[in-house]
Amino acid sequence: MRVNGKKVGDKPDPGPAFGLSSGLANLKVTVFVGIRAQQKEKTRRTLIEAAFSQLCANRSFSNLSLREVAREAGIAPTSFYRHFRDMEELGLTLVDEGGLTLRQLMRQARQRIAGGGSVISTSVQTFMEFVENNPNIFRLLLRERSGTSAAFRQAVAREIQHFIAELTDYLEATTQAPREEAYIQAEAMVTIVFSAGADALDMTPEECKALSERTISQLRMIAMGAEVQNRKRHESLT
User: Fold this and answer.
1) Of 84, 104, 122, which closes a domain?
2) 74-130, pLDDT tens digit by residue?
3) Most exposed: 108, 132, 167, 193, by fewest CB within 10 Å?
4) Which of 21-35, 37-51, 176-190 has the lowest mean pLDDT?
5) 69 shares its domain with 97
C-alpha cells in the first residue's frame, strides 16, 4: 500500500501460528506445575510412611528426629521443610491419618454387616485386624492420647470423638434409641475396644483370639443392657 507516494508495509499478522505457540507454552507450564505437585505429594507421602515405619514398641514419635525421618525418606533434611513446618506438624498428620484409616475400616465393617453377619463380632474382628496389621499406627494413637503435647492429646481425642460419633449415628439409626443413650453406649463400646487393642499389641495370636472373644462378650452385654433400657423407656411411655 502507498501513502503520499511512499510504500508502507503492512503490520505483520501474528496469524494462527502465534496463538498456537502461545497455547502450547501455557500447556507446558500447566503440565510442569502438575508434575511438580505430584512429585511434592509423593515426597510428602514418603515422609509420612518413613515416620510410621520407625515407630515401634520401644520407640515413640517423640524419640524421632527430623534428620532420621528425612534419611529414611531419602531426602535432605532441609527439604523436609517444603512439606511440613516442623516435626509436630508431621506428628499431627500421622494422628489424623491413623484415625482416618481406622474409621474407614470400621465403615467397611458396617457395610459387611449390612450384607449379613454379627454387628459386634464383625466390628471387633475388623478392629483387631487393624491393630495386628498397623501396630505402629495404633501405638501412636495410644501414646499420644496421654502424651506431654497438648496438641497431640487434642488431636487423638478428636479422632476418638469422630469414632464415637459415627458409632452413635449407627446405633441411633439401627436401635431407634435416643441420641443421648446411643452416645453413652457408643462411648462405652469404644472405650472397651481401645483397651482391648492396647492389650493385643503384646499378645500371641492365641491370646488375641481369646481376648477378641472376651471383648465380643463384653460388648454384647452392653448392647443387651441398652436394649433393656430402651424397652423400659418405651413401656413407660405406653
Assistant:
1) 84
2) 999 999 999 999 999 999 999 999 999 988 888 888 877 766 668 899 899 999 999
3) 108
4) 21-35
5) no
| CA 163 – CA 135 distance, rounded (Å) | 18
| Residue 86, all three cell numbers | 516442623
Residue finishing a domain among 34, 52, 84: 84
d(CA 110, CA 108): 5
Is 75 found in the same domain as 184?
no
Please tell me the distance from the alpha carbon of residue 136 to that of residue 55, in angstroms, as a whole number. Answer: 6
Cα gap 143→141, rounded to integer Å: 6
Q: Which three cell numbers stand for residue 85?
A: 513446618
Please count the residues of the chain.
238
Mean pLDDT of all residues in 193-220: 96
CATH number at residue 137: 1.10.357.10
162-170: Cβ within 8 A, 24+ apart: 162/99, 162/103, 163/99, 163/102, 163/103, 163/106, 163/190, 164/190, 166/103, 166/106, 166/107, 167/106, 170/110
Q: Work out whether strand 2-3 and strand 6-7 pair parallel, antiparallel, or are unpaired.
A: antiparallel
Average pLDDT rounded to a whole number, residues 51-64: 89
Q: Is residue 5 part of a domain?
A: no
Q: Are residues 70 and 154 in the same domain?
A: no
Confidence (pLDDT) at 213: 97
Q: Are 126 and 65 in contact (CB under 8 A)?
A: no
- Do 74 and 168 sit in the same domain of this protein? no
Give the angle subtended at the CA of 148 by the CAs of 146 and 152, to the nearest 5°: 70
Residue 32 lies in a domain: yes
